[in-house]
Recover the amino acids of this structure.
């Protein structure tokens, strides 16, 4: 079901950023690849382009950092990785999210059996 | 080839136009990110693969310029807090309220003070007959003792 407009936007707001952090938890990723991967998740994003302002925001927050690496094919590639602050933010989100999700599930009646 | 560059430039230009309300450094940053993304994806295509359809699909995946810009505009509200404009009036009204509260409190304390003073004054004047009796020995006794002790202690 396609949920247009404000509900999906509101749900994404505040959660998508942490999905990005989680995708980078294990290893750094090439920016274009990261965006492609997230952009394919239609419940999470509307388009690839909207991810760049968010990535820039996470950089400014000091949760992500980027490194340029030479590529064997094509222009140099920018890799995104988590900073210690980014890891701490992800850890904090995990705790908050579990409590938040449990409460919503209990009240809305969507708790998994 | 050139026509594809034009497609890309038109797209970036549309984003730039939509970003009018965003600070220049952030606008430049986003445009650089987007053109880097487009260049990287184009570089993945071999020359014969790079068709208009392919280039258009790269741009379509990036999404509507207005939408991309709108996402960047969100940071306007979140990041640089428009503190001087928005918070100042609130602070001023809060300060005015505190000034008013203080004035009222001080005025009430004055009134209470005056009432208390009047009350104490009236009760003490009522007891006028008894009052002189008690303080008189108490006041006079220490006065005499200090007066007598002072001269004796200084010569010794």
């Amino acid at each position: 079901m396609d949920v247009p407009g404000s509900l999906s936007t509101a749900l994404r707001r505040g959660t998508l950023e942490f999905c990005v952090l989680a995708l980078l938890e294990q290893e750094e990723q090439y920016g274009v690849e990261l965006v492609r991967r997230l952009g394919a998740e239609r419940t999470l994003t509307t388009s690839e382009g909207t991810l760049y302002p968010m990535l820039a925001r996470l950089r400014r927050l000091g949760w992500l950092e980027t490194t340029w690496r030479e590529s064997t094919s094509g222009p140099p590639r920018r890799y995104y990785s988590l900073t210690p602050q980014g890891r701490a933010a992800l850890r904090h989100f995990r705790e908050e999210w579990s409590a938040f999700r449990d409460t919503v599930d209990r009240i809305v009646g969507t708790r998994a059996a | 080839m050139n026509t594809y560059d034009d497609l890309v430039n038109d797209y970036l230009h549309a984003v730039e136009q939509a970003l009018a309300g965003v600070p220049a450094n952030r606008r430049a940053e986003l445009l650089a990110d987007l053109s880097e993304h487009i260049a990287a994806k184009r570089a993945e295509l071999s020359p014969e693969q790079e068709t208009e359809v392919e280039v258009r699909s790269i741009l379509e995946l990036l999404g509507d310029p207005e939408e991309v810009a709108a996402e960047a505009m969100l940071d306007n509200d979140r990041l640089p807090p428009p503190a001087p404009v928005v918070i100042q009036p609130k602070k001023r009204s809060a300060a005015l309220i505190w000034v008013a509260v203080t004035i009222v409190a001080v005025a009430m304390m004055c009134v209470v003070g005056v009432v208390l003073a009047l009350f104490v004054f009236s009760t003490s004047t009522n007891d006028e007959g008894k009052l002189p009796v008690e303080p008189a020995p108490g006041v006079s006794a220490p006065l005499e003792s200090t007066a007598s002790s002072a001269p004796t202690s200084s010569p010794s």
